[in-house]
Design brief:
By secondary structure, the protein is an alpha/beta fold. The chain has 12 helices and 15 strands. It folds into 2 domains: 235 residues, P-loop containing nucleotide triphosphate hydrolases (Rossmann fold); 119 residues, Histidine kinase-like ATPase, C-terminal domain (Heat Shock Protein 90, 2-Layer Sandwich). Helix 4 packs across helix 5, helix 5 runs parallel beside helix 6 and helix 10 packs antiparallel against helix 11. Bound molecules: adenosine-5'-diphosphate and magnesium ion (MG). Adenosine-5'-diphosphate binds next to strand 2 and helix 1.
Length: 360
């Protein structure tokens, strides 16, 4: 359905996309991931000509999009795009936001457009907001309206550019749920996202963009569990773990716990394990002597459903598991009770504690 060959895009001297080739079949769900600034937005904006490619070709259903004889508006109408920032018409009601396109561009009768809009609003769970205005909606609701508005144009291809990244964390899941629901309707979707769990669950294939290329592509299992190339590996490792640096005893405990909590939430770690993680981080820090250079890293193992914590602290070798202060006893007990394994090593001038926090 979509065929891309040697697509490139330069902004002046800046080469964002070097050479992108891909074939996407009807009904496929492609997630596009990668570090920021690698051209993910540019790539999908080129697909519907919001950006004019510098070189290469794009075929939609065999029709060359960049050929000057092609009826571009007609082809673009097959594609809907959902942006980070909703882009609803503020002066129109939710219903009117959904009907204006079909009436003006598809020549649909008002009654039919209204009826269809109501159905779509039901699909995204917002039928009762039909007569509200965008200002009266939460971010998550706005984005669901934006998705319904795209669907009202009956697209065959939906492009999403980080549809949840402007949302409060509490609203991410309602939008992802709607996208997941639509993914069962057979529409071809290309989704740029930072939500890796979502990407893993929904996609038929994942494109990792880097160096102006589809640097690596594969099934979600291949890309997330077994990436082959160096940069993909580094990226996947980075997003899987959280690193917190502490440079003094006056570190901000609450900010640290907040970051850890957000990490756990992102990885759908249970409330209980999340609670253990925060508590153990505090206790582990309670065992430290030297706060000049500490790194606490968390990673989530999907396979085991547990969180691993590594605390590395620079300084002379002291094993807190054996050479502890008397008042460390309680902390140690708390740690051991909530971990399936606690190990110590001294390496490269660092005292390192490895902890596996018990899963369910
Ligand atoms: P991503 O979506 O992966 O974060 P983008 O596609 O937004 O990356 O941007 C890739 C690079 O292209 C960035 O360096 C960005 O600054 C640059 N860029 C994007 N759009 C434009 C533009 N319209 N003019 C100039 N530079 C741009
Ligand atoms: Mg982007």
């Amino acid at each position: 359905m979509i065929k891309v060959r040697n697509l490139s895009k330069h902004f002046g001297a800046l080469v964002v996309l070097k050479d992108i080739s891909a074939d996407i079949s009807k009904g496929e769900i492609i997630s596009v991931i990668g570090p920021s600034g690698t051209g993910k937005s540019t790539f999908i904006r080129c697909l519907n000509l919001l950006e004019t490619p510098t070189g290469g070709s794009i075929f939609i259903d065999g029709i060359p999009l960049l050929d000057k004889h092609t009826n571009v508006p007609k082809i673009r109408r097959k594609m809907g795009m959902v942006f980070q920032s909703f882009n609803l018409y503020a002066h129109l009601s939710v219903l009117e936001n959904l009907t204006i396109g079909p009436i003006k561009l598809l020549g649909m009768k008002k009654a039919e457009a209204n009826q269809k809009a109501i159905e779509l609003l039901k699909l995204v769970g917002l039928a009762e907001k039909a007569y509200s205005f965008p200002d009266e909606l939460s971010g998550g609701q706005k984005q669901r309206v934006a998705i319904a508005r795209c669907m009202a144009m009956e697209p065959e291809i939906l492009l999403f550019d980080e549809p949840t990244s402007a949302l409060d964390p509490t609203m991410v899941s309602e939008v992802l749920a709607v996208i997941r629901r639509l993914s069962r309707e057979g529409i071809t979707m290309i989704i740029v996202t930072h939500e890796m769990e979502f990407a893993r669950n929904i996609s038929s294939r994942v494109f990792y963009l880097d160096e102006g290329l589809i640097y690596e592509e594969g099934t979600p299992q291949q890309i997330f569990d077994n990436p082959q190339k160096e940069k993909t590996k580094a990226f996947i490792n980075r997003i899987r773990s959280l690193h917190i640096n502490i440079a003094s005893g006056d570190y901000d405990l609450y900010a640290m716990q907040g970051e850890m909590e957000a990490f756990c939430e992102k990885h759908v770690v249970t409330k209980r394990v999340t609670g253990y993680t925060l508590l153990i981080a505090e206790e582990v820090l309670g065992l430290q002597r030297d706060f000049s250079n500490i790194t606490i890293s968390l990673s989530y193992s999907e396979k085991e459903g547990n969180v691993e914590m590594v605390c590395a602290s620079a300084g002379a070798a002291v094993n807190p598991l054996t050479e502890n202060f008397p008042d460390d006893e309680i902390g140690l007990k708390l740690i051991r009770g909530r971990c399936s394994s606690v190990e110590y090593a001294y390496k490269d001038g660092k005292n390192i504690l490895f902890l596996k926090i018990k899963g369910e």
